[in-house]
Write a structure and sequence with these properties.
The complex is a heterodimer of chains A (about 575) and B (about 180).
Chain A (H helix, E strand, L loop, with lengths): L5 H22 L5 H9 L3 E3 L4 E5 L5 E3 H13 L4 E4 L5 E3 L7 H9 L17 E2 L14 H11 L14 E4 L13 E7 L5 E7 L11 E8 L3 H15 L10 H8 L1 H17 L10 H8 L23 H10 E2 L6 E6 L10 E3 H14 L3 E4 L5 E7 L3 H10 L14 E2 L14 H10 L3 H7 L4 E4 L13 E8 L2 E8 L15 E2 L4 E2 L3 H15 L6 H8 L2 H8 L4 H7 L1
Parallel strand pairs in A: 6-7, 7-8, 16-17, 17-18
Antiparallel strand pairs in A: 1-2, 2-5, 3-14, 4-5, 4-13, 8-9, 9-10, 11-12, 12-15, 14-15, 18-19, 19-20, 19-21
Helix pairs in contact in A: 1-2, 1-4, 3-11, 5-9, 6-8, 13-15, 15-16, 15-17
Chain B lengths: L1 E2 L8 E2 L16 E4 H7 L9 E5 L17 E6 L6 H11 L6 E6 L6 H7 L3 E2 L7 H7 L24 H9 L1 H5 L5
Parallel strand pairs in B: 1-7, 2-3, 3-4, 4-5, 5-6, 6-7
The chains are: A alpha+beta (about 575), B alpha/beta (about 180).
Chain lengths: ~575, ~180
């Protein structure tokens, strides 16, 4: 993984010093809360229901065991002993008092981490495929390119106050596991017919109130020019994106409104940068810089392809067999596997980890994965460098540490935002809904029979729980001060299983909180009745349409029936 | 970065009490709005210092042909979190090679200074309640940056080898003296 240089370290410490100055001015009454707000947001400090939330960047989801231990230390020293992994591969703390924020930033800087641009109307932390660098279907490892993009976007002076937040996702594999169509900019690394490396560039995707799938800007931008092409897109957005209405300020609205004119403007701007600007070509990425950064992403020392025979996977304990089936993934290196540590288990919110669990995961990473981990978009952890022969021992150790729930990709491996329990924006709580569904579907045989399914839960229309892209989406809405939930079906993140990225469709009026598990069950039962042989949930929904699901979902209305009758 | 104090500011705007001024006479150091400039540019004497104040929703391209005649372009921040003027300044400098003064006006806060400096502004009118000391301090936190900007066009990766290390040594003096006792 990327190794910080002394400059990188100094830069992060400088940012902490700058923030401390701003914090001190705020505490001394020289900087108003309103004016401090955008400054703290750009460092990840987001005032929540109970305390500021501190969102920490995990660039493209790569995390070392040492960093995870550092995070555990912060959880203990500054927070209430736990954190929450997000759909954007970041980590959030919930209980750090603002007066201690600068100290927490220093502690973070000590393990080469920061919260820069994890919030605010700027280019956010860049996300990627959690299996980058290890997936068998990878064409080009995206990590060096993303690191160069990360550095370029960090404290970019022209793009610190965009109309709205700006999210970039990158993949280098055949399958899109980074949901690039749902991002403000989506980048797909590919080779052209001449074998040269470049990016297919999409722009204008996003969730929120108006879900939009990104539009292709260019089929191929040579990798050397990608910073300039992105600069062109972001500049057009900075100049012409709407600022009069927060709900219409994302780039998706501009792209949708302008269509081809937007693409033309980007192309003209790109040509102008290259041909007319003083120093316009300075940001062409030189081979030497690529090589310098790529050197960080060589195989960890000691990782070599092995031809050792795979250990038996049949005739093993059923629980182990299940774990092998769901939590263990193919690897590009022979003799190796990637293993998901499930953060979806009864008794804890999806993505939540205690300080002890962080340390346990760090220990597993040290013992089995060369000290490296990944945070996934589905809010789990992955050990990327596991030897095949270690799988059984790892399974036992993961089980001890509560990470071995064999549910990856299944209904209980759901995505959920922190919701109304923590978030000041939320209309409704997510965690109790997630807990009720987890409890309802606690039978593994049943879960396996239901098979692959994406259940995504957001506590409000800001869509942090990506409800639009769930095969089943649950969206918290507020009606007369009560919590209600809108259910959508048929959404897709763009993965192979789910098909082209598309938002799900609403199946009717919202449901009361206590009806949600029944609705999910009714919808799932409809699938089980209607499915063809070996047909996944999403495919059945597409084939039979929404009506049978609506009928069964309406059949479980109790509180809503009463409310509507009254 | 120059800090413009209102009482020492030689530039005067021209505005009538009831709408646009019709009897404007060219005089040195007038800061005109775009409409005024368009109305008078044909008869504006060559060599007489003139500035134009642009709204942040104006395309700087409109001003490009006139830039050699202007001493000052004032760009505004109606709200400090509205970042359009950063792009305007950047374009004025790098695309249209404007060498006169680019001044930030409106809601200009201390913490914008690094961004202003790096996108090509060289003068600011701070909002009245802002501290110049804090503004100067705001310019000094970083040893360097990753991406190039108007002030320093080269990104860190395009600079000669060893630049990043040199920046670290400059910023952290103990690194320099380390080893002196050996």
């Amino acid at each position: 993984m990327y190794q910080y240089t002394e400059f990188d370290r100094l830069f992060v410490r400088s940012r902490a010093a700058q923030f401390r100055d701003q914090l001190n001015r705020n505490l001394a009454g020289q900087l108003s809360d309103d004016e401090f707000r955008p400054l703290r947001l750009q460092n990840g400090w987001y005032v929540q229901r109970h305390a500021p939330m501190f969102r920490i960047a995990v660039p493209y989801g790569e995390l070392s065991a040492r960093q995870l231990r550092g995070l555990a230390g912060i959880a203990r020293e500054f927070d209430r002993g736990y954190g929450h992994f997000t759909t954007r591969q970041n980590l959030q703390f919930n209980w750090i008092p603002l007066t201690r924020s600068a100290d927490a930033m220093d502690a973070l800087a000590a393990v080469d981490m920061h919260g820069i641009q994890t919030s605010g109307n700027c280019i956010r932390n860049i996300t990627s495929d959690a299996f980058a660098g290890i997936a068998p279907d990878e064409v080009i490892d995206p990590r060096p390119y993303i690191e160069i993009l990360r550095q370029w976007s960090t404290l970019h002076p022209e793009f610190a106050f965009l109309p709205r937040k700006f999210k970039i996702a990158v993949t280098g594999a055949t399958e899109d596991r980074a949901a690039i169509g749902w991002h403000d900019i989506g980048l797909h690394l590919r080779r052209n017919d001449a074998g040269e490396i470049g990016f297919k560039v999409l722009a204008g995707g996003g969730m929120g109130r108006t879900p939009v799938i990104a539009t292709t800007m260019r089929e191929f931008v040579p990798w050397q020019q990608v910073l300039l092409f992105i600069e062109a897109i972001v500049r057009i957005y900075n100049r012409y994106g709407r600022r009069d209405n927060m709900y219409k300020a994302r780039i998706k609205i501009l792209v949708k409104a302008e269509g081809q004119k937007f693409i033309d403007a980007v192309n003209t701007e790109f040509a102008n940068i290259l041909e007319h600007d003083v120093g316009g070509t300075e940001h062409l990425i030189p081979q030497a810089e690529f090589d310098r950064v790529a050197a960080s992403f060589r195989l960890p020392e000691g990782v070599v392809e092995t031809t050792e025979a795979a250990p038996p996977q049949t005739d093993v304990e059923p629980a182990y067999a299940r774990w092998l089936q769901r939590n263990v993934h193919a690897h590009r290196l022979a003799g190796h596997r990637a293993v998901t540590l499930s953060l979806k288990r009864p008794g804890q919110a999806p993505g939540d980890v205690t300080a002890e669990q962080m340390e346990a995961a760090a220990a597993l990473a040290d013992r089995y994965s060369h000290g490296e981990l990944r945070v996934t978009h589905d809010q789990n952890l992955v050990l990327p460098w596991v030897r095949q022969r270690d799988l059984h021992a790892l399974w036992q150790a993961a089980r001890e540490a509560s990470f071995a729930t064999p549910n990856i990709g299944l209904l209980t491996d759901m995505i959920a935002c922190p919701g109304g329990d923590f978030c000041a924006l939320a209309n409704a709580r997510s965690i109790p809904v997630a807990a009720a569904i987890t409890e309802r579907f606690s039978d593994l045989d049943e879960l396996y029979d239901i098979g692959d399914i994406d259940l995504h839960i957001s506590g409000c229309i800001n869509s942090c729980g990506h409800h639009h892209s769930g095969h089943i989406g649950v969206l918290g809405v507020d009606k007369d001060g009560a919590e209600w939930y809108q259910i959508t079906l048929g959404g897709s993140d763009g993965s192979t299983l789910s098909g082209h990225a598309v938002p799900g469709k609403v199946i009717g009026p919202s449901f009361a909180a206590d009806e949600v598990p029944d609705v999910i069950e009714a919808v799932v039962d409809t699938y089980r009745t209607r499915r063809a042989a070996n047909e996944h949930f999403i495919d059945t929904v597409r084939r039979v349409g929404l009506d049978p699901f609506k009928t069964s979902a309406n059949g479980v209305r109790r509180s809503t029936a009463t409310a509507h009758a009254a | 970065m120059r800090f413009i104090e209102t009482r020492r500011n030689p530039w005067r705007t021209v505005s009538g009490e009831d709408g646009p001024v019709v009897d404007l006479q060219p005089a040195p150091n007038l800061l005109l709005d775009l409409a005024q400039w368009h109305a008078f540019r044909a008869q504006w004497p060559n060599g007489m210092a003139v500035g134009v104040a642009l709204g942040n929703d104006v395309d700087v391209e409109e001003l490009a042909p006139d830039l050699p005649r202007l001493s000052l372009v004032a760009l505004s921040f109606p709200k400090w979190v509205d970042g359009r003027a950063y792009s305007q300044a950047r374009l004025l400098r790098t695309r249209y090679r404007f060498t006169g003064e680019i001044r930030a006006t409106g809601e200009v806060l201390v913490d914008m200074l690094p961004l202003l400096q790096r996108t090509g502004f060289d003068a600011v009118v701070l909002r009245a309640d802002q501290s110049q000391d804090a503004a100067r301090r705001a310019l000094g936190f970083f040893p360097g940056h990753y991406q190039g900007d108007v002030q320093d066009r080269q990104p860190l990766f395009a600079k000669p080898e060893g630049t990043a290390d040199a920046l670290v040594k400059k910023a952290v003096p103990e690194f320099v003296s380390a080893g002196e006792g050996i």
